[in-house]
Amino acid sequence: MTTHDVFNQSTPLEGVNLFKANRPLQDALHTWAPQLDTTALATIGQEAGSQELQQHARLANTHTPQLHTHDRFGRRADEVEFHPSYHALMARALHHGLHGTPWSEGPGAHVRRAAAFMLFTEAEPSVLCPVSMSYAVTPALRANPALHAAWGPKLAATAYDSRFIPMPGKTAVTMGMGMTEKQGGSDVRANTTRAEPDGSDVWGERYRITGHKWFFSAPMCDAFLILAQTPAGLSCFFLPRWLPDGTLNAIRIQRLKHKLGNHANASSEVEFESALAWRVGDEGRGIPQILAMGALTRLDCALGTAGLMRQALSLALHHTTQRRAFGKALIEQPLMKNVLADLALESEAATALAMRLAVAVDRSEHARDEHETVMRRLLTPVAKFWVCKRGSHFAQEAMECLGGNGYVEAAGEGVMARIYREMPLNSIWEGAGNIMALDLLRALRGADVAAALERECGPARGAHPALDALLAQVLHEVDGGTDEAEGRALARRVALLLQAALLRRQSPPAVFAAFCDTRIAQASDVFGLLRHGHDLDSIVQRSLPLET
Ligand SMILES: Cc1cc2nc3c(=O)[nH]c(=O)nc-3n(C[C@H](O)[C@H](O)[C@H](O)COP(=O)(O)OP(=O)(O)OC[C@H]3O[C@@H](n4cnc5c(N)ncnc54)[C@H](O)[C@@H]3O)c2cc1C
Description:
18 helices, two-stranded antiparallel ribbon, globular, binds flavin-adenine dinucleotide, 14% strand, alpha+beta, 7-stranded mixed sheet
């Protein structure tokens, strides 16, 4: 034996069709969208699980974006340069229509796109920031029909164009959003950026914007929706990078953030020096206007986290299948099997909740269905809060399954460490946990949530005593008014109730029973607390990253 024989180390997880291997996702689609043609999802699953995309993800995260504030002659450039792998990933995401494409398609398009978004997250989540914002912007942009007519088609176009040139010359465009300022992100009413009227033209009422944004992600997007103050209050504006006369708009990128994770994506701090923008929606109605966008990026936070959980679970299962300790594959050690089964339950429940929200978005867009509209309003804060909140905890445990290797990046090859650094982001941006809990309380005041929950969860009555008790408790609470300080507790209960009802409907009985026992009947604070009698083998088997 030489000194460098390597044995009992696992291999990279690659060459797996991430869609065909994902039974929980397939079962969710089968239950909620049985007519959906999943051919495209199988293609995306193949690509997202390929060695090629993994290599692009590694390179895009290792060779991080570089800001060029000026050119060599001293003129403002305000350009961010990305590694070619970033552009390759963006091109794949747009090719598959993960941005604005569903808005020009028929029923089912948002569900298909949601599943595709989850799968693509397993390849690389940080490029999906501009992709998600470009998806989410359409309903808000419609409030300015001229802008929507001019920009909408290119927001849906699938031929990515990385060039930093004005919109008319580009094959496709992307959009971002700017709300957060130094003095306040959750409380955007504190925004100080000013908008002063500057006439009107074919895009509507024009304004001069002066101020700053403290977080301004993906600054190489072609345009942004931003908030700024007018005499009538906070209003929403369309701010393009290039002006219609072909000159650069006065958006000054000050610096890029040094972030914990999300390294392939650029997040910047910007100042606006009398930049030109066009109003979207009414003056003084900026917050509801931009929240039409924020609600959809919140959907993507839940989908993205469910995708990352699935990826972390697959890595843990793959590793423990290959790695041996104390005479057995780790996956065969009873305690490890317990941890893996518990992670599989969490991952499946996250997938179910996030996909149910996507179904509600799709159905309420196309059919004006009252129940689905209420479910969309309810599920947006609940899924964003709960799925994202569970993400970091999940990633830590999945990482531990890999032992020390889980903690090591190895020049970007250690995917688990990247997942761990990415996880907290979905919980913070687009409204952190408390903000989601407060939004849930607002949702209770505006709709008959009890009736919607009864319709959604009532059919699961009798399937598990813990679920019955939780349903009764939640129905009482949503009708009775909840104290603000208990917002998180309620959000957690609503999430668990809905997850249990979904698992009852779309998952095997072993998954449903174990979920109710460990999440509702008892409140597990660490993974791996399943008891004797739970069918660990079938739960783990169902989630193995093998094609079925
Ligand atoms: C990598 C990254 C990229 C981002 N990109 C963008 C972007 O492109 N555009 C953009 O506009 N923003 C962006 N953000 C900003 C993000 O949306 C905000 O950071 C987030 O909304 C929180 O705002 P804040 O940082 O000002 O924190 P604060 O608003 O100060 O909140 C701090 C904490 O207080 C809690 N809190 C606030 N109010 C209450 C209350 N009433 N009751 C109880 N708790 C409360 C919050 O939940 C949070 O936990 C980005 C953030 C990150 C990390």
